[in-house]
C-alpha cells in the first residue's frame, strides 16, 4: 500500500449534508478497492479561473489515502462514472519529502521554544 493525496472537486453542492453524502460516496470507491482513507480536509468553495463545463465554482476536498498502486487507474476510471465528482487529481506522496518537512518543523519549533526561554532571562 502506498500513500496518495487526492483533490476532489464537487460542483452544485449547496449544503454541507449534500457535500458529506457526495464525499462518502466518492470515498466508498477507495474502500471498495481495498484502500484506507487516512485524512479528509475540506478546503471550501472556490471560484474557477475560467468556467469549466458551464460551471463557475466548486467545493474542494483534499483526501490522504492508502491504496495499492495497481488500483489507482481503476479508481480514476470509476470516478469518471460517478456524477457527483466533477474533477479528481491523485498524486503519490513522497515519503522522504514528508519526513524532511516534519524534521524541519520540529527543529523550527525547538528553536522557537529555546529563544522564548532565553528571552525572559535576558530581560531580568
Helix-strand layout with pairing:
Layout: E1 2-10, H1 16-32, E2 36-52, E3 55-67, H2 72-79, E4 87-92, H3 95-123
Antiparallel strand pairs: 1-3, 1-4, 2-3
User: What is the quaternary state of this protein?
Assistant: single chain
| Rg over CA atoms | 20 Å
Mean of residue pLDDT?
A: 87
**Amino- and carboxy-terminal Cα gap:** 55 Å
Strand order of the largest sheet: 2-3-1-4
- The percentage helix is 40-55%
Instruction: Tell me what the CATH architecture of the largest domain is.
Output: 2-Layer Sandwich
The backbone outline, from C-alpha atoms, is extended
Major sheet characteristics: 4 strands, antiparallel
Q: Name the beta content range.
A: 35-45%
Structural class: alpha+beta
Please trace the helix and strand order, writing H or E for each element: EHEEHEH
The CATH superfamily of the largest domain appears as: Ribosomal protein S6/Translation elongation factor EF1B
How many strands in all?
4
Structural domain count? 2
CATH class of the largest domain: Alpha Beta
- Number of contiguous helices: 3
- Indicate the low-confidence ranges by residue numbers: none
Look up the CATH topology of the largest domain.
Answer: Alpha-Beta Plaits
Describe this structure in words.
The chain has helices at residues 16-32, 72-79, 95-123; strands at residues 2-10, 36-52, 55-67, 87-92. With 124 residues, the protein is α+β, with helices and mostly antiparallel strands. It folds into two domains: 2-93, 2-Layer Sandwich (Alpha-Beta Plaits), CATH 3.30.70.60; 94-124. The longest helix is centred in the C-terminal third of the chain and has 29 residues, at 95-123.
Amino acid at each position: 500500500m502506498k500513500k496518495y493525496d487526492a483533490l476532489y472537486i464537487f460542483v452544485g453542492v449547496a449544503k454541507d449534508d449534500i457535500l458529506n453524502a457526495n464525499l462518502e460516496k466518492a470515498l466508498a470507491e477507495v474502500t471498495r478497492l481495498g484502500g484506507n482513507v487516512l485524512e479528509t480536509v475540506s478546503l471550501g468553495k472556490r471560484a474557477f479561473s475560467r468556467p469549466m463545463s458551464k460551471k463557475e465554482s466548486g467545493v474542494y476536498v483534499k483526501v490522504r489515502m492508502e491504496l495499492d498502486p495497481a488500483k489507482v487507474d481503476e479508481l480514476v476510471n470509476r470516478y469518471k462514472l460517478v456524477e457527483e465528482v466533477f474533477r479528481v487529481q491523485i498524486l503519490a506522496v513522497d515519503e522522504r519529502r514528508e519526513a524532511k518537512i516534519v524534521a524541519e518543523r520540529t527543529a523550527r519549533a525547538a528553536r522557537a521554544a529555546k529563544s522564548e526561554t532565553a528571552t525572559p532571562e535576558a530581560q531580568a
